[in-house]
Amino acid sequence: MREKCYAIGVDIGGTNIKIGLFLAEGRLLSKWEFPTDISDSGVNILPSIREFISLNLGAIEKDKIIGIGVGVPGPVDFNGTVFGCVNLGWGEKNIKEELTNLLKLPVKVENDANLAALGEMWQGAGKDYKNLALITIGTGIGGGIVANGKILSGRNGGSGEIGHLTIRIDEKELCSCGKTGCVEQYGSATAMVKIAKDRIEKIDGIKTDLFAEGLTAKTIFEEAKKRDLLALEIVEEMGKAIGMALSHVAGIFAPDIILVGGGVAKAGTIVIDAIQKYYEKYVFYVAKDTPIKLGSLGNDAGIYGGAKMIID
Fold it and tell me: What is the pTM of this model?
């Protein structure tokens, strides 16, 4: 009966909102992207989603839409309440209730990285597995865990926060989460740039083709591939931080596969190689052979996961 029904996946990011229209069988029909309006503490974000869906999907009868699966960049409980999204300007907010009232359609809400993990399991690089961990490496570091084919959300949606595992106890500088020594402080794109700039500016006579002005993680990877010593050093430190964190995840959860997504993953095998080296160094021996691969859905993983959550 569902072959002519639809599911909508929504991924709310700090810069853009992505929306995908799927057939209930799982095929992506159309996708869109538009800027996130974070003005006035993000008060316009949910109304903008309603307006966009009304304009672009208004021709579809509502009784043919199974529902809308929404990913947000923060921890979400089973009631659809998010406990703060710094990038969106939100504090505690019941997304499910508000969006249901706006759209008059069934709504489910999850953490964005959790949905990306579900999307990769459904139609991506994790398609042949039911137990997987996904780490997303970009401006920050997120994570999602799928166990027996279902998202592992945990208490108050706090599961899968790989970026905020503590890997150094001597760190004095605060992470964005308020703790110290988090993986995100050493392995994110932001951290890579910060560490590189500090060394360029503080180490006299350092030999490198990297420049502090306009430096990006992409540039660091490009120069590392050309064997620039500082760039290689920064990539090595990223690999150590992420590899150590994933070894902890494997020690607790023992996934069938570990996937790497986010903007940093676009650098390709250099990322996987750096992570794999330290993962194998630190992981409990029975999990050494766990495959670590790049995700295949890219920035669309979240909308796939949103649709899958609704279809299930």
Answer: 0.91
